[in-house]
Design a protein that fits this description.
The chain has 496 residues and is an alpha+beta fold. The protein is 20% helix and 33% strand. It contains eight helices and 26 strands. A six-stranded antiparallel β-barrel has the order 4-5-6-18-17-7. Strands 10-19-16-12-14 form a five-stranded mixed sheet, with no helix packed on it. The chain has a four-stranded antiparallel sheet with strand order 9-11-15-13, with no helix packed on it. Strand 20 and strand 21 form a beta hairpin.
Amino acid sequence: MPNTALGASDSAGGTVPHVKGSCSKGNSVSSAFSVLSARGRGAARLAAAALVWGLATAGTIAAAGTAAADATPQSQGGATATIGELKTYGSAVIHDHGEDSWVSAGLFEMSVDNGGTLQTYCIDLHNPTQRDAKYQETSWSGTSLNGNKEAGRIRWILQNSYPQVNDLAALAGKAGVTGLTEQDAAAGTQVAIWRYSDGADVDAANPRAEKLADYLQKNARDLPEPEASLTLAPTAVSGHAGERLGPVTVHTNAGSVTVIPPTDIAAGGVKIVDRSGKTVTSAADGSRLYFDVPKDGADGSASLTVQASTTVPVGRAFTSETRSQTQILAGSSESTVSATVTANWAAKGAIPALSAQKNCAKGGVDITAANTGDEAFTFDLMGIEHTIAAGASQTIAVPLQEDQAYDFTIAAPTGGEKRFKGVLDCKTQGGAGDLSAQTLSEPSPASVGGSSGGTDLAETGGSGTTPLIAGAAIALVVIGGAVVVLVGRKQTPPQS
């Protein structure tokens, strides 16, 4: 079944137009039509995305820091990649509250920074895909897989289906299917994943893909979360000048990693050393690294990066700092992975080490502040003053609402700043009541298509024809008004 074909067979033997749906790369044309045709649990999310795009609004929890602030993603390291097109896919239909939405189901391709390619399925069915969004390898705890008791079954599906199993004849034999194509295999695998990641009532349009999806769902077994390709722990350290700051432990599946100290470390006389004080330029899993700071060095800060070439473990999650649907890894070429740690030092006073991590179990972001200085460290976070005593460490939970953007800065005593930004995306479904609370950081082209019975399907292939563009422009006005009315109804009682 060619990817561009129209009239793909559905499970009932009829035909449906091919559409790129919720698991496809969004574009400005598809956004307008997709929101108008979306139904059920995903409609609120899509409407909110269209509102942001159409009205060009943006929001943050607190004011961003100065341009000099260190923008810190809530990542512990690994692969960073840019999402590309949906490469291998078929069609599927989502059944939701008596309505059917036709979508594309299959494999995305991602380009890894500094070299490498990833193949991913999506695990966030009702969330749109941001055009050319940047993604970062992430632990399950920072995604909608947190608390999902079926997450391990998704990993089993990934390891026991396409593309990890690229012998289609063997895969077809296990599923009791004949004539399985790559498109069928990708669609069937994605459908089976959605049933566990989103709890979706979804079927593959093609009978072969549907039979594969049923086989995978029935036979899936629980597997543990895979280890990260590369992380450093902790991601921030601090201490007095004249000390070795650390240790920072390397965790990786690579045979070795390259230690890349920034130029300002060499210029300031700071070295990266092992426990014995020997300068290191490479490390391995379990290695412990230290910042060796001269006693007469000026107060300051620096960071080091470790980098490796390895394959990213199947089942690792990928999230974006923009509001773009979460992905899960199905295959990896040899790829460049990296992780960074920062260090602060001073002769006296407060010496903080600041880090942040998304906490989907608590619905927010955890800010950890460790003060290795000899004076208390006081800082303001979202209008609230916090004080960390000398020698103490504290984790501050910042509660957020689903899909809420955040961007805040903490000033350090030495004059530097630490900036944390991102979007909380911990759920796979949204409700109409969520609209008034959603704050989106950037335009998010929606990509779910279809309507009841498949008779008025959205075309999201990005044809760029003049009539379609004109229709999108008109639809934007309608969408903007419709969403404003929904929000207004949430906030304002009806008048008699």
